[in-house]
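ugh ok fine here u go
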Amino acid sequence: MLKAFAAFGGACGVLLIANKVYFSGGKCYETGRLDGKLAIVTGANGGIGKETTAELVRRGAIVIMACRNLERAEAAKVDIVQRYGEGQPSALTTNVVNSHMFDILVNNAGIMACPYGETKDGFEMQMGTNHLGPFLLTELLLPLIKRAGPGSRIIFVSSRSGLVPLNGEKAAYSRFNSYCRSKLANVMYSSYLAKRLETDGIKTASVHPGVVQTDLFKLPESMKTILRFVTRPFMKTPWEGAQTTLYTILVQNLKSGAYYSDCALSNPSPIVFDEKATECLIAASRKAVGLD
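structure:
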C-alpha cells in the first residue's frame, strides 16, 4: 500500500513539474547590456511591469517607473534596488519632461475584464486605459524617442485579442470583449508605428505575456485570493510573464511591428493587416485624445 501511495505521489509530482514547465512559457536568453539607456515602463510598481523594470535595471538601464500610485512605486523601487543593488530607478508618475531623450518605452500598464466604467475623459475604462492612454503617451514621447536615434524601441504589452468594433457601449457591454478590443488596438497601433518609424530606425513590437498571476483583474480581494489558489498551477509568474517583453527589447533581429509570444514570433488577428481598419483606428484615436 505504501509503495502504491509513493508511486502515486511521485507521478503527481512529475505531472505538476511538467505542467509548470509547460505553462511557464519561453525564456529570454539574450545577454545584451543596456548601460546608459533610458527607459520608461508604465505600471512598473507590480506584476509584469515591476519584473520588467528589475530586469532592465539589472542590465544597466536607467528606468523611469511611470505609475499612478507613487507610494507603491517607491516601495517597488526599494525592492528592486535591494535585489540588484544597481541602476537608478526613479519612481515618478508623469514628470518626464526634463529628460531630453528616451531609448525604450514599455507600455505595460493595463486593466482586464472590469465592470463597465468610464475614465475621467469619458472613455470606456478598458479602451481608455489599455489603448488610448498608451497611444497618447507614445505620440507625445515620439520626438524624444526619435532623438535617441536608431535602435530605440517601443513595446506594447498586449494579449491574444478578439475582433473589432472598437467602441464600447454601456447597453451591450462585455468586459471580456472590451478587453480583447483594447488589446487588439495595441497590436494594430504597434504595426502602424513600425511603418511610420521605419526611416528613423525605431522598432516596435507587441507581446502576449501569457496568462500571468497579477492584479490585472479588478476583483474583490477575497475573490483574487481564491483565483490565485485555483489557477496557480496553470499560470505564469510575473517574472515569466516579463520574458517576452525583455526579449523584444534585447534581441538584435527584432521584426518591427510584429507580434511576439513566448519569446518568438506569433500570428496576430488578421485584422491587424487590414489597412483601412488601421486607418480608422488611428484617426479615431487621434481625435479621441485631442491630437486632431
